[in-house]
Each structure stands twice: as structure tokens, then as C-alpha cells.
């Protein structure tokens, strides 16, 4: 599987129920409780709200710095309340959050 199946800007209501892989920068995280957090994932095409619904995923995200590149697998679902942000929401599945703080990039690097 490639490093992403969709971009953040292309998910729509008709994608609800699909398994997707997104990649981008972690723009912001808002923790609501021990087992619930909302993460804003941004790429060149837009933003998507990722819902983290387990204590393990919330704990993993705490260790990631903002603007880190991350990859998330999960299922798209409709937002419970529609806002200016759009009509889609991505729910990260258990153990699906991965991030690259170091390691290989999905594109070749250039030396200067």
C-alpha cells in the first residue's frame, strides 16, 4: 500500500465507511479526556480532523511534536455536527497511528 490512499482535501461524505490512509503534518491536537482527542492533520490539499478514541492513541500523540509528519490509518465517518470545516471526519483505529520523527522519507533527499 502506498503512503496514503487519499489526500486530506479530497475526503467527502460519500467516503464515509471507507478505510483510508492519510499522511501529512500534525497541525494541532485537542485532548478532551483520557481516551478522546481531536487531531488536525494537514497536507498540501487541505485538513482533516482525526478522532483518537483510545487512551493508547492519545498517549502516543502526546509524544509527537506539532508539525511532525504522521501517517494515520482508519475509517472515514460523517461529522456529528457540520461546520465550516466540512462534512468529513477520520477515525483512527486502534494502533493505527504512526509517525516519522526520523527514518526514511517517502521521497529522496537532496544534499546542499
Quick structural summary:
By secondary structure, the protein is mainly beta.
Q: Could you list the spans in which at least 5 consecutive residues all have pLDDT below 50?
A: 93-105
How widely separated are the two ends?
31 Å
- The Rg value, from CA coordinates, equals 14 Å
Order of helices and strands: EEEHEE
Q: Major sheet, described briefly? A: 5 strands, mixed, barrel
Helix amount: under 10%
Share of residues in strands: over 45%
Kindly name the structural category. Answer: mainly beta
Round the mean pLDDT to the nearest integer and report it.
77
Give me the oligomer status: single chain
**Counting H and I runs of at least 4 residues, what is the number of helices?**
1
- Extended strand count: 5
Global geometry: globular
Layout of helices and strands:
Elements: E1 19-33, E2 36-43, E3 46-52, H1 55-62, E4 69-83, E5 86-100
Parallel strand pairs: 3-5
Antiparallel strand pairs: 1-2, 1-4, 2-3, 4-5
Amino acid at each position: 500500500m502506498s503512503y496514503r490512499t487519499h489526500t486530506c482535501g479530497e475526503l467527502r461524505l460519500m467516503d464515509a465507511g471507507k478505510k483510508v490512509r492519510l499522511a501529512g503534518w500534525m497541525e494541532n491536537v485537542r485532548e478532551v479526556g483520557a481516551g478522546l482527542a481531536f487531531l488536525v492533520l494537514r497536507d498540501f490539499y487541505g485538513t482533516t480532523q482525526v478522532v483518537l478514541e483510545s487512551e493508547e492513541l492519545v498517549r502516543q500523540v502526546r509524544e509527537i511534536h506539532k508539525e511532525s509528519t504522521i501517517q494515520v490509518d482508519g475509517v472515514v465517518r460523517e461529522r456529528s455536527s457540520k461546520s465550516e470545516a466540512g462534512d468529513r471526519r477520520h477515525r483512527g483505529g486502534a494502533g493505527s497511528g504512526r509517525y516519522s520523527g526520523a527514518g526514511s522519507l517517502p521521497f529522496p533527499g537532496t544534499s546542499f
